[in-house]
UniProtKB/TrEMBL annotation:
This is Monooxygenase 2 isoform X1. InterPro entries: FAD-bd, FAD/NAD-bd_sf, MOase. Pfam families: FAD_binding_3. Residues 69-256 form the FAD-binding domain.
Length: 326
């Protein structure tokens, strides 16, 4: 892992083997991860392009799902993993996620003959602006540029014109070393996006629980967090593991009845809240600190905090999670 300033100066280089062998960073393209997980499911399990319009509880505790295409599904159990704008979370009473004050351009640089970068994460910190890139395959490099923005909504043109998105992204880093701009240039249009960074803090005794009857939410549908710790998708996978174990125990112990499932969902919520709430808060604080524009604060960050005070173990201890035996 390498941290640089906007003028290209290396502030700190972290070597995992030398500093903390218990820690590591792995970068995986989201599409590859999803395809790998989907390939392990039984045939015909997945039904694509089935957006949910509304959910209707039935007297016996089942859920009737009304889909956008006019069809309906009757489900004994509903697990909502449908992202930050989840209609299931909205039905359960969750508020819309809150805008953090930061937005991000993201994309995948494509090098058909092989990408030239070593297997490490590179971060670049400026004033109110930061970026990074990391190889995710022999031919692809993921990149992001995070910037302060008073409004979460760009103009309609910027949301539909990938070429303009790339121009805007490169304009932000026009005075930086050219590595990142070159990666942006090599990004196919369909991989480039601009998104507001949002989160939802799950306040105890105030926020709804993650389940309602035999309906439960996981991942961003329940606890969207800013990507400043790189733990959003990781937490969704953790949710899935814990929820699966709770459901398996309920089914084995009680024959899979509705009451057992509801208890499993409540147990999942109790166990996961203590993990996701601190991570959401920490991600928000880290993002706010890294997006400071004050030149004195940025000077101290670049010349004192990062080179002299940051340690790899404490920096990444939030990634530690053990699911025991599956």
């Amino acid at each position: 892992m390498v941290v640089k300033s906007e003028d290209g100066r290396e502030l700190r280089s972290f070597n995992f083997k030398e500093e903390d062998q218990s820690q590591e960073v792995r970068a995986v393209e989201r599409r590859v991860l999803l395809e790998t997980l989907a390939s392990k499911l039984p045939k015909d399990t997945l039904r694509f392009s089935s957006k949910l319009a509304s959910i209707e509880p039935t007297p016996n505790g089942d859920s009737l799902l009304h889909l956008m295409d006019g069809s309906n599904l009757l489900a004994k159990i509903v697990i909502g993993c449908d992202g930050i704008r989840s209609p299931i979370a909205k039905w359960m009473g969750f508020s819309d996620p809150n805008y953090s004050g930061h937005s991000a351009f993201r994309g995948l640089g494509y090098y058909p003959s092989g990408q030239p970068y070593p297997p490490k994460v590179t971060y670049v910190y400026g004033r109110g602006l930061r970026a990074g890139f990391v190889p995710v395959s022999p031919t692809k490099v993921y990149w992001f540029i995070c910037f302060n923005s008073p409004s979460p909504s760009p103009t309609p043109t910027t949301t539909t014109n990938p070429s303009l998105l790339k121009q805007q992204a490169k304009q932000l880093i026009s005075h930086w070393p050219t590595d990142l701009a070159s990666i942006v240039d090599r990004s196919p249009d369909e991989t480039v996006s601009r998104t507001p960074l949002v989160d939802r803090w799950l306040w105890p005794a105030v926020s709804p629980g993650p389940s309602r009857g035999r309906v439960v939410v996981v991942g961003d549908a329940w606890h969207p967090m800013t990507p400043n710790l790189g733990q959003g998708a990781c937490c969704a996978l953790e949710d899935s593991v814990v929820l699966a174990k709770k459901l398996a125990a309920a089914i084995k112990g009680g024959g899979g009845g509705g009451g057992d499932v509801e208890g499993a969902f409540r147990g999942y919520g109790r166990e996961r809240w203590g993990r996701v709430f601190p991570l959401t808060a920490r991600a928000s604080v880290v993002g706010s600190v890294l997006q400071w524009e004050n030149p004195l604060v940025c000077y101290v960050r670049n010349n004192v905090v990062i080179p002299k005070l940051v340690r790899l173990g404490p920096l990444l201890e939030h990634t530690n999670f053990s699911c025991d035996t599956l």
